[in-house]
Specification:
487 residues; mainly alpha; 79% helix; globular
Length: 487
């Protein structure tokens, strides 16, 4: 592991007096000496903590605001459909920009992109917290989305170069655990903030964590490994525009279809996305440095890992959408009971993911992932056997089984996907990992919306569970195909 000492940004020095700058340099140098005296493994985990903090913020911000949407709609005097753009404006920008920032990480350095993302996320959080109007809130959320795209585009690439290969599984397990904890904590934290503070603190709470992550990142995050001889990197500006247009039209079309607002408009958006996507792919496949990692997708291990990730997140999204409705309409739970009962799922994932990271060093990842997805499917099957009148603890173990299965799958699959790419293409692998997750979640949301329109309140959740079983088993089959390859 080669640690590169980061230099003090010249732009920062120019903003303060020379004497103050000299004192700052002396303080900074002493801190760096102290950091160098730390044990290597301790430095690695400190450096990884910067990445984990911002990932925690990204996941929290995707869930914590949902609870406040009714209050925000009332505060700003907008409709329920309009207030959803507080979520959509954040989530849409991530796939539109994530691959672009992944490539910039490969070219300019993952550390630089991460630092820029941390700053943007913190600035966006301040803008949201200070928002006096709906337009300013949306603008702040968009700045947050750009920052999130920066960080999510390079986070696994940074983890890969921070830790040696023998520790990669453990590191990916910690990453998955942070995601699971953040997912579980988001709604509960939002409830506490809204109970005792104003909605502004949903965003202000991000600022100190972003600043802490930035400070650790500047001090400890390593530079990129050197490129192999003869390999050159160049930025594909036209590809970045194609990528943004494709994902923008795709998600607008999916959202229009899911809402059932205008079938013709949805069709036009999706057709336009398909045309742009075809032109985008044709362009990328002939480039030496593609924005969309066509070169990596030629690797069967990598492409199978992407496909199984999409299937798994589709199944998870189906469950996450269907479960609250199932508990409300079929089991007649109130909002508090629903939140408490769902919590065992992310907790089980949180516990299982780090353990799965240790297993991947000893067993074939394809087999572990297949077993995890089979357990996931079994959890869905068990949900079909649960009905009104049964004790809640019997639902809890069923949801925990789903969480165990997903945690057992997630870490080995992520390790396989990232490690199957050359080290100098870690940014592209990191971007595809995030893109696969977002695409899977969008597919699950769309499929759930379609099933909700077809079936009545008492059967829509059952339909989603059956679809989830099909997607989980598909993921298991695709995972098992990797056993024929070199895991």
């Amino acid at each position: 592991m080669c640690w590169q000492e980061p230099s003090l940004p010249a732009a920062s020095i120019s903003l303060i007096k020379t004497s103050d700058a000299a004192a700052w340099r002396r303080c900074y140098a002493s801190e760096m000496i102290a950091m160098k005296n730390l044990d290597t493994s301790v430095r690695q985990y400190f450096a990884a903590s910067a990445v984990m903090c911002v990932i925690m913020l990204n996941v929290l911000d995707a869930t914590i605001v949902n609870v406040a949407l009714p209050a925000l709609a009332l505060t700003f005097g907008v409709s329920d459909s309009a207030i959803t753009w507080v979520v959509n404006s954040y989530l849409m920008l991530i796939p539109m920009l994530m691959l672009t920032f992944s490539l910039l990480g490969d070219i300019w350095g993952y550390r630089r992109v991460f630092v820029a993302g941390s700053i943007l996320f913190g600035v966006g959080s301040v803008l949201c917290g200070l928002a006096s109007g709906f337009a300013m809130l949306i603008a702040g959320r968009m700045v947050q989305g750009v920052g999130a795209a920066c960080v999510m585009g390079v986070n696994t690439a940074l983890v890969r170069i921070i830790f040696p290969p023998r520790k990669l599984g453990t590191a990916m397990g910690l990453n998955a655990m942070v995601v699971a904890v953040s997912s579980a904590a988001g709604p509960a934290l939002a409830g506490v903030i809204l109970q005792y503070l104003s909605w502004h603190w949903l965003f202000f709470i991000n600022v100190p964590i972003a600043v802490l992550s930035l400070a650790i990142g500047l001090a400890l995050l390593p530079g990129n490994p050197p490129l192999p001889e003869g390999v050159k990197r160049s930025f594909d500006g036209m590809g970045a525009m194609y990528n943004a247009a494709f994902f923008c039209l795709l998600f607008l079309g999916v959202d229009t279809f899911a809402q059932g607002n205008n079938a013709i408009l949805s069709a036009v958006e999706l057709v336009a996305a398909a045309v742009i996507g075809a032109a985008y792919f044709h362009r990328e496949k002939i480039l030496a440095t593609p924005l969309f990692p066509v070169d990596l997708m030629r690797n069967s291990i990598f492409s199978l890992s992407v496909l199984t990730s999409i299937c798994s997140y589709t199944a998870q999204s189906l469950a996450y959408i269907a479960l609250p409705f199932y508990m409300h309409y079929v089991l007649h739970y109130d909002a508090v009971a629903i939140g408490a009962t769902i919590t065992p799922w992310p907790i089980a994932t949180m516990i299982t993911a780090p353990l799965a990271g240790k297993l991947v060093a000893r067993y074939r990842a394809g087999a572990i992932c297949a077993v995890g997805m089979c357990l996931f499917a079994l959890g869905f099957v068990s949900l079909l056997t649960f009905g009104a009148g049964q004790p809640a603890w019997q639902l809890v173990w069923r949801l925990a089984l789903c969480g165990v299965g997903f945690g057992l799958f997630q870490t080995p699959n992520n390790v396989t996907l990232v490690s199957s790419a050359p080290k100098h293409r870690s940014g592209g692998a990191s971007g595809m990992l995030g893109t696969a997750r977002v695409v899977g979640q969008a597919l699950g949301t769309t499929l759930a919306a379609l099933l909700f329109r077809i079936f009545d309140n008492t059967h829509q959740s059952t339909a989603c569970f059956i679809a989830g079983i099909a997607m989980a088993l598909t993921a298991a089959i695709v995972s098992s195909l990797r056993l024929k390859k070199q895991d």
